[in-house]
C-alpha cells in the first residue's frame, strides 16, 4: 500500500492541478489537514515538506502554507525547444501510429519535441496525463478524448489547462461544452455512406455494430439509422448491436454467432464500427463456414492497414489518419504562435473531414445475382 | 426469489419486445431453451405455456414454437378511444406536473386517454415502461428520455416502437442518433443568458452547478462556459461543479459549503442547473449566515413555482412547461393523424423554445455598489 504521507501529498497535488487551490491561496493549517485526512501531524509535515521541495507549495513564517505560482512555459522556453504532449486513447495499434506519425513528422520538422501518452480509453489514466500536462513541462496538447460519449469527468483539468494558457486541440472527437478547436471526421455521414452501399446492393437485413462509449460510434450509428430511413428500409431493431470499451472483445462476437445461428431472416450484410472489429468478425464468419462476400457482405471503417491484411479486401470508409495528424500539429503550432505573438493573424479553426467510401470486394451486389 | 420459469418467461418476452424475435420467427426448441437457460424441461414448458396463454407465442404441431403477430392498434381502436403513454423522468414534483397538465388538457379535449409513467431517471424502469408500450395498448408515446447524456441503453426498444408504427415524440432532451420529433429548450442559450446576467453585474467568481447525466445539464454548462469566454472572464476551474442523479442530494451541498469556507476568492454568484437545486442551496447559504443577494447572488433555471416560494424571489430562466406539454400533445395527435390518413398534410416537426430571463431580486449589481 502507498504510504499515508504519499496519499496526502498526491491528494493536495491533485487539488492544485485541478485548480482547487490557486497560486498564493492558503492550503489549510497542519491541524486542518490532520483532521481532513485523518492522519498524524508527522504525516502531514512529511507531505508538506515534499510538496515544498518539489515547488508545488511554499511556506510563510507564521502565516501557513500556500499554493505556489507555477509558470508553465518557463521551463520549456528556457532551452528553446517547445514540447507538445499527445494523449491518445490507444498508442501502438490500429490507426493510432499513423495519426501519431503525421503529428510527429510536422512537429519535428518545426523544432518541437513530442511526448506521447495513451489512456487505453480509461478516464483515470487520462486524468493522470492531464495532471502531467498541468505540471508544466508542455507548451501545447493534442488530445483524443477518452470515452468521449460519456460525461466528461475531467472538465476541471481542461479548464485549468485553458487558465494556464496551454493551447490544446482535440482529435477524432470533442466535448461540446468546451467548444475546443477540433479535428474530426463527419462520422454520421461515414456511417450513412457505408450503410447505403449495401442497401443499394439490395441487402435488407443489415447488422450494425457500434461502440457506444465514444462519440464516433454514436455518430456512425446515427448514419446507419439515417441510411435505412432515407431508403425506406425498416430497421430490424435487434440488428443494431452496441458495445463498449470493456465488452468489445466479447459482445460483438457472441451476438454475431447468435444472429447467424437462426436461418430465418439471417443478415446478409454487416456494417462495422471499424476495420479492427471487421477483421475479428471475418474470423467468426469463416469459422461458421460462411463465405465473404458470397454469404455475407462486410463493411469496415477507417481504411486502415487491416482492411487489406486479410485475404478479403474490405470495403471501408476512409479516415484521414496521417493527414489528421499533420493538420493537428499545424493547428497546435498555429495556436502557440498566436498566443506568443498577438500580431500573428488568427487562423486556427476546427476541421471536419468528409468521408469517402473505398470500395474493395467484401460486399456483394444482390441485384446482379437476381438478374443472372 | 423469482421462480425460474418466470425468469425464462420474462427473458423471452423481453426478447420479443426488443425485436430479437419477429412475428412467426421460431423461438428455439425445448432442448435449446433448456440448454441456453440452464433449466429443466419442466421449467421451459411452464414458461412456454404461460407465453402461449398470454398471446406472445404460438405452437405449431411438430414444428415448434413461434413468435406471435401482435397488431398494436387493434385493441386501442376497437373502443374508439386512443391511448397515449407519457413517460417522464419524474412525475409529481417540480415542473413535471405542469408539463403533464399541458399534455392532459389537450389530449382529453381531443378524445384521447392518457397514462403517465415516471422512470425516476432509472434506465431499467424506462425499459420496463417501453415494454409496456410495446405490448400494444398505446397509439402514441410522449417520452422524456432517462439519463439522456449517457449512451442510450434502450435503443432497440425505440426502434421496435418505430417498427410497430407507434408515433412518439421526445420532450426536454432527445437521442441524436434516433433523430426523433422533439420539443426542447435551447438550454445552451439559457445557460448563457443566466450567466451573462451576473457577469454583466460585475461578478467575477461565479459558481456553476450542473447535472451531467442529462443533456440539459451539459448544454447549460456549455452556456456557462460560453458566457465567460465571450465576456473575456477567465473561469476558475473548480467553480464548475457537476453532479448526477445519484449524487444530486449530497454533492452540490457539500461542494458549496467547501467553497464558502475559504474567504479568499469566495464566489459572489451561483448559477444553478435548476430552481430545485437553487432552493436547496439557498438554505445552505442561510445556514452559513450569508444573505441573498447581499453576500451571494443566486440564479435558478426553469421559472418553476419554487422560484417564488421562498422569501428570496429567484431570477431564473423561463421553461415553456405547460406550453411544451400542449405542443407535445398536438404533435403526437398530428403524427397519429398523418399515420392513419396519408392525405393529411405532413406538418409534424420539432420545436426548440428560445429561453427568456425572468429577472427578480436574487442577484446584486456589484457595479452599482461601487458607484455609491
UniProtKB/TrEMBL annotation, chains A, B:
Presence of keyword ATP-binding: no
Domain HTH gntR-type: residue ranges: 2-70
Stored SMART domains: HTH_GNTR
Signal peptide (from-to): none
GO molecular function list: DNA-binding transcription factor activity; transcription cis-regulatory region binding
SUPFAM superfamilies: Periplasmic binding protein-like I (SSF53822), Winged helix' DNA-binding domain (SSF46785)
Keywords: DNA-binding, Transcription, Transcription regulation
Superkingdom: Bacteria
Pfam families in the cross-refs: GntR, Peripla_BP_3
Listed name of the protein: Transcriptional regulator, GntR family with LacI sensor
Upper lineage: Bacteria, Bacillati, Bacillota, Bacilli, Bacillales
Amino acid at each position: 500500500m502507498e504510504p499515508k504521507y504519499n496519499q496526502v501529498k498526491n491528494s493536495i497535488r491533485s487539488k492544485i492541478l485541478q485548480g482547487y487551490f490557486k497560486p498564493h491561496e492558503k492550503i489549510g493549517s497542519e491541524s486542518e489537514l490532520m483532521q481532513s485526512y485523518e492522519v498524524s501531524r508527522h504525516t502531514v509535515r512529511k507531505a508538506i515538506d515534499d510538496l515544498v521541495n518539489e515547488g508545488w507549495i511554499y511556506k510563510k513564517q507564521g502565516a501557513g502554507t500556500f499554493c505556489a505560482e507555477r509558470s508553465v512555459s518557463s521551463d520549456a522556453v528556457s532551452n528553446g525547444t517547445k514540447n507538445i504532449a499527445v494523449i491518445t486513447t490507444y498508442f501502438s495499434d490500429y490507426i493510432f501510429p499513423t495519426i501519431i506519425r503525421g503529428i510527429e513528422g510536422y512537429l519535428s520538422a518545426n523544432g518541437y519535441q513530442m511526448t506521447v501518452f495513451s489512456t487505453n480509453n480509461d478516464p483515470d489514466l487520462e486524468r493522470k496525463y492531464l495532471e502531467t500536462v498541468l505540471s508544466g513541462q508542455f507548451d501545447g496538447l493534442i488530445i483524443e478524448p477518452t470515452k468521449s460519449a460519456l460525461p466528461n469527468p475531467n472538465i476541471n483539468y481542461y479548464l485549468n489547462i485553458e487558465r494556464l494558457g496551454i493551447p490544446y486541440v482535440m482529435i477524432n472527437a470533442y466535448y461540446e461544452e468546451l467548444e475546443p478547436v477540433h479535428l474530426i471526421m463527419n462520422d454520421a455521414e461515414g456511417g450513412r455512406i457505408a450503410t447505403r452501399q449495401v442497401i443499394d446492393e439490395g441487402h435488407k437485413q443489415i447488422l450494425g455494430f457500434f461502440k457506444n462509449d465514444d462519440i464516433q460510434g454514436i455518430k456512425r450509428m446515427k448514419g446507419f439509422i439515417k441510411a435505412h430511413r432515407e431508403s425506406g428500409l425498416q430497421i430490424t431493431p435487434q440488428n443494431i448491436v452496441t458495445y463498449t470499451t470493456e465488452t468489445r472483445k466479447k459482445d460483438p462476437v457472441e451476438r454475431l454467432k447468435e444472429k447467424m445461428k437462426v436461418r430465418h431472416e439471417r443478415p446478409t450484410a454487416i456494417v462495422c464500427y471499424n476495420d479492427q472489429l471487421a477483421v475479428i468478425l471475418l474470423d467468426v464468419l469463416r469459422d461458421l463456414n460462411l463465405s465473404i462476400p458470397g454469404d455475407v457482405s462486410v463493411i469496415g471503417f477507417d481504411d486502415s492497414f487491416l482492411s487489406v491484411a486479410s485475404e478479403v479486401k474490405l470495403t471501408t470508409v476512409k479516415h484521414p489518419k496521417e493527414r489528421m495528424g499533420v493538420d493537428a500539429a499545424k493547428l497546435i503550432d498555429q495556436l502557440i504562435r498566436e498566443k506568443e505573438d498577438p500580431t500573428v493573424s488568427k487562423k486556427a479553426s476546427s476541421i471536419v473531414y468528409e468521408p469517402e467510401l473505398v470500395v474493395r470486394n467484401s460486399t456483394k451486389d444482390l441485384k446482379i445475382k437476381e438478374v443472372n
